[in-house]
Amino acid sequence: MAAIKEETSPEIESRGAVALYWLSLGELTKLIEAFKKEGVERAIMAGQVKHKQIFSSIRPDWRLAKLLLSLRTRNTDALLGAIAKVLADEGIVLENSTAFLEPLLAKPGVLTEREPSGEERNNIVYGRMVARQLAQYDIGQTVVVAESACVAVEAMEGTDAAIERAGQIMESLGAGTSALSRALTVVKIAKPNQDMRFDVPVIGVKTISVMQSAGASCLALDAGKCLLLDGDAIVSAADAAGIAIVADAK
Question: Which helix (DSSP H) or strand (DSSP E) does residue 143 occupy?
């Protein structure tokens, strides 16, 4: 197992891995050497490396520096796709990150006790349209909407931070001074031609807590393309908060 120092919890050491290598972001050569030492021919990415880490924490070795210089864009798809190709050239195949997590992929339909209201459904339709345009440029996969108006768009900060920012924006408008409904709808989608090897959309219980604090009442996902990382706990938390969750096929 290879663990990223800047992202991985130290608790991983108690999970019983046969071999554990701690690497910093950017140590691509060290990663390949570790895999070859252990005879690894197939690998799976698990967890998340925040997009902003690419610019804040990465210290590229010569191999990754060469790769970065060859890229026309340095978004997630371009960078991780290039790393996957380097691994493949070394005889290491990167498998779908959901290979062992398919039961946690969002099922089609309404997942909670409460169904989305008519207004929330309208927000979802509009939010999906906006999110699809953003996702094709790998800017972000989440938009936050109120009354079919875009309040916040996810970029490098991540889903939860985008939701928090939307809540702050609505709060700044002041009670009773806005023409917008104060209830927010969160729409999180997969990218067009989502590469299931990496950067698959993920929702956890924390996201539900952040939504509740921000005044968001509905969450829309892509069925079969988004991981509900905490399984039933997410739905239970949403039901307790009165939040509707719906997963639609593309």
Answer: strand 142-146
Contact 194, 65 (CB under 8 A): no
Domain of 23, CATH number, reads 3.40.50.20
DSSP-based three-state secondary structure for 138? coil
Note whether 34 and 82 are same-domain residues: yes
What's the CATH code of the domain at 120? 3.40.140.80
Expressed as residue numbers, the domain containing 29 is 2-94
Which residue, of 48, 76, 94, is where some domain finishes? 94
Helices (H) and strands (E) in the chain, counts: 8, 12
User: Is 218 found in the same domain as 107?
Assistant: yes
User: Same structural domain for residues 107 and 87?
Assistant: no
The secondary structure of the chain in percent helix, strand, coil, rounded to multiples of 5, reads 40, 20, 45
Listing DSSP states for 161-188 in one string gives: HHHHHHHHHHHHH-TT--SS-S-EEEEE
Tally of residues, the chain: 250
Interval 150-193: pLDDT, tens: 999 998 888 999 999 999 999 887 655 455 567 899 999 998 88
**208 & 241 share domain:** yes
What is d(CA 123, CA 119) in angstroms, rounded to the nearest whole number?
A: 6
| Among the listed residues 147, 110, 150, 117, the one whose alpha carbon sits nearest the alpha carbon of residue 131 | 150
Kindly state the average pLDDT of the residues 113-136: 94
**Considering the chain, what is the average pLDDT of its residues?**
88
Give the CA count within 13 Å in the CB-facing half-sphere of 127: 31
8 A C-beta contact, residue 120 and residue 216: no
Provide mean pLDDT across the span 235-246. Answer: 97
